[in-house]
Write a structure and sequence with these properties.
This protein has helices spanning 12-20, 24-32, 38-45, 61-73. It is mainly alpha-helical and 85 residues long. α1 crosses α2 (24-32). The protein is elongated, with a radius of gyration of 19 Å.
Amino acid sequence: MKSWKVREESPKIYSLSEELGLSLIVAQLLINRGIDDFSLAKDFLYPESSSLSSPSCIPGVEEACIRIRKAIENKERLLLLVTMM
């Protein structure tokens, strides 16, 4: 079972919440991740496409693409599961 560890409420929570229009809980979660100012939070929540990593950096993505193409060609049914680490 997963256990959540919530840090003590930061004084920055209110300004971050107000500046970005976030709930207090979301602001606190960002702060828990070390994202504690407007600029960092904005970049995390609303990234520019130019700052995102290339999908080719994802381990196994080339093999997955080959398998998906093969399934489409063979008219197989597909089920894609995505997990966040």
